[in-house]
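fold-stage: in
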Amino acid sequence: MTCIGPAGPGEPVLIHLEDQRLNLVFFEILIHGGSWDDPSGREGLADLTALNLLRGTAHRSYSAIMDGFNDIGASVDVASHREYITISGDFMPRYRHVFAGIMSEILSSPSFPAGEFKKEKALALEDIRNLVNDDSELARHHFYRYLYGDGRDGRPSGGFYRTVSKLGVQDCRDYYRTHFVRGNVVVVLSGAITPDEAAEFLDTVTGEMAPGPCLVAPTLEPVVQNAGRLLIVDKPGRTQAQVVMGHSSISWSCPELFGILVGNTAFGGNFTSRLVTEIREKRGWSYGVSSGISAGRDSGTLTMRFFPETRDVAPAVELAGRLFSECAAGGLREDEVESAVNNLVRQYPFRIETVRKRADEEVADLIFRRPAGLSSSFVEKVSAQTPDSVNHALRLHFRPSDLVSVVVGDSAALLDPLSGVYGRDMIDVIDYRHE
C-alpha cells in the first residue's frame, strides 16, 4: 500500500509502504532545501546545519539522544544533498512511540549547543581539507566547478573551507528556523507499520514544528561554462590520472528520457558498451570506465569517467571524445540498442525488490518531479525503445561541442600530449589545492 500527499496546504507529506513480513520500520525525513539554498558566501550551511541536528535539543544532550536511540536499537543518520536534508534509518515497531518522541524533539527544538557545534565544524573543515587526498573525488569536484562555476550545481554541498570557516551557530539556527517548518517536511515510512500508525507517527514527529510552507526551489536553467575546454588539476608526481568528461543534460521530465537512458547504457553504461569495449577491453587503458546521466528535477549532468596511466591519458581522452561524437552523429547499431534494453530490463527488478527501495522510488518521484507512474511503466517504456527513437534522443542530447573535461594528474607530463588534442589555448591548469 502506498499513501502519498499532504493533508492540506502547509502540511507535511507522508509516503507510506507497508510490509508486515519485516520486523523493522525504515524511515526517512526530508527537509526541502539543501545546498541549493545556501546563500552566496555561506556555502556549506545546509550541510553544517544537518550535522548539528542530533547534537542536542532543549531537553536532551547529544549523549542522551544517542543513548535513547541505542536503548531501543534504532539507527539514525543525517545527510545533506543539493535539494534536501535527510534524517534516515530504522527502528523496531514496538518502540515506535519512544522513537517518535525523540525525533519530535530533534525536529522541533534542536539547541545547536556551541561546544558540539565547534566539534562538528572542525570535522567538516577536516573533510574539506582531505578532499585533496582523494583523486577521484577531487576530479569530480573540479568537473562540477569547471562546468557550472558558482551556479547552484557548481557549489559543493559541504561548502568551501573559506566559507565554512566563517559559519557560526547563529547561521545554523537561522537556517533551521526558515526550513524546518511543517509544510517543508516529507516523512517516509516503510516496513512493519500500518497506515494508521504511520499517520500517528507523522503527527507526533511534526506536530510541534513551526507552521510554514513548502520551500521547493523554483525551476532554474543551469549556468554552464567552458564548453570544449580542458582543465588540468596539477598533482605533481602522479603516474595515473583521473578523467571526467561531460556536459549538462536532461531532467526526469525530458520527452526523450527513455531513449537517452537506453542510448547511454549502450554507449558506456555496462560492460559490453562501446566506451568500455574500446577503452578497457581493446586497449587496456583503464580498468574502470563508464558514462552516466544523473537526471534531476529540471536538468541533469552527463559524465564519462576513467583513470588511465599518464602516458595513456591523451589518446584515451581523444578516443572518448571521438566515440561520443560518432555516437551522437551516427547513432547506435540495432544489436547495441537491443543489448542495452535487455540490460536495463533485467536490472530493474533489483531497484524495487524491497519495500525500502520502492519507498526510495516514491521519494524520487516527489523530489525530482518524475513522470507519474514511472516506476510501474519503466520496463514497458524501456522495452518500447527502437534504434530510431534512441538515435533521435542521442542526436538531441549528446552534444560533443559542449563537452567539458577535467584531468587530475601531473601537468608536466600531461600538458604537451593534451595540447595536441585540444590546442594549448583551450587548456587551463590549476594547482590541486585550488578550491
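fold-stage: in (second)
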Amino acid sequence: VVEAYRTGDTSALSEEDAAILEICRQVLEAEIDNDMSPAEQELAVHDWIIDHAAYDETHSSPNRSHPYGICMGYANTFQLFMGLLDIPCVTVIGASSDSRQDHAWNLVQLDGDWYAVDTTWDDPLGGFVDVPAANESGHHTYFNVTSDFLRQTDHQWDYDAVQEAEGTYWTWRHLTRRR
C-alpha cells in the first residue's frame, strides 16, 4: 500500500488494499497540512485513528490485523500512516494484563529519538483502560511515551529485542502548546 501511494501505481493491490489506500488518501488530505512538522502529523494521525477506529471486543473479526480489527489493527494502521508520511515506525508485539493478553503498539522516530505510542489504550472505546473522551488530556496518556512508562503500565515485550523509546520532547502537551 505504501509503495502504491508513493508511485501512484495501484495495479498490484488487491481490492481490499486499494480501498484501504483510498481511505488513507482521504484521511491524509483532510488531516495533514503541508506546514505540519512530522510530530504534528503523527498527532493528527493518532487522533484520527482513535476517533474513527472500532475495537472488536469479541476478537471475532477475520481482519484483526487490518485497520478494521483489534490492537494489532490499531498498531498496523498507525504504522501504515507513518509509512505514508515517511516517519520511521515499527510495531511492537507483546502482552498486557500480567502477560495474560496479547497486545501491540508502536515505536515512532522523531528527530532521531524513539517514542512509544499505544493507540489502542488511548482509545476511549479500546476496551482495556478507562480513557477520557477525545481531545481531553487523558486521551493522550500513551502518546509519545518512554519504554519505562510502558513497563510501569502493564506492557510486556522482549526488552532485549526492541529499541528503547527514550524520547521525551515530542509529547502531546508539547505539541498542543505549539498550536
